[in-house]
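User: I'm putting together notes for a lab meeting next week and I want to include a structural view of one of the chains we've been expressing. I don't have a solved structure, so I'd like a prediction I can at least talk through. The sequence is below, exactly as it appears in our construct file.
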Amino acid sequence: MTILTRLGQVLKTDISTDVIFKKKNIEEKEYDLLADMRKRRSIYALSNRVSHSPEYLTELIKQAVRCCPSAQNAQSARVVILLEHAHYKFWEMVRNIQRNQLPERIFEGASVKLDRCSSAYGTVLFFEDQAVIQTLQKQKPLQAHNFEIWSEQTSGMVQFAVWTALSSTGLGASLHHYNPNINHETAKMFDLPDSWQFKSQLVFGSIVKPAIAKSELEDDCLFKVFSDSV
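Assistant: Thanks for the context. Below is the predicted structure for the 230-residue chain, given as structure tokens.
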């Protein structure tokens, strides 16, 4: 739970804070934050056998979202949390839409991926409220063209924060983009406002098979560092 410890959040759950939050020195906290970020990988083989309570996971996700910045403090991110049966029901809806829209041979391959999603424990649906963006565009017309860009940046940070928070608990997750084909049925299923623009779906659960090692580009390709001493 170190990512939330650094951010000074207190989870209101049935798990005692003494178990969740351990006193550590500054050096350990800095290291643990990076360690949690490194745990955030795309894990596709997931199970619904999760030891954490629904209340704990819900609060974890909420706090991760609230920790994220947004332009002009717009707080335009909107999140739907699906656990257990609600999660399964959602992915069955996605399956039905895919079955109706894809050729049979292509759907057979897509069905394997959908099986993996539905086998997990939960899903986080990410949205951006366009009503908030449009209000800001009217209030600040000289910056109007930037607010849609900033909204995308906000959503990316929220997705990363939730993904990392879940990874810090030992759970695995993978991000998917079945939208826009599922936009209408998703809004209908959960009675969502028309202004909520669908961005992505994060599936999470216990890890059945870890992610494979990934290659990384060299520093001289990724970074340029400048200072008075260089």
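A couple of points you could mention at the meeting. The beta strands are 45-47, 77-83, 122-129, 172-176, 196-209. The chain has one domain: 2-211.

User: Perfect, that's what I needed.
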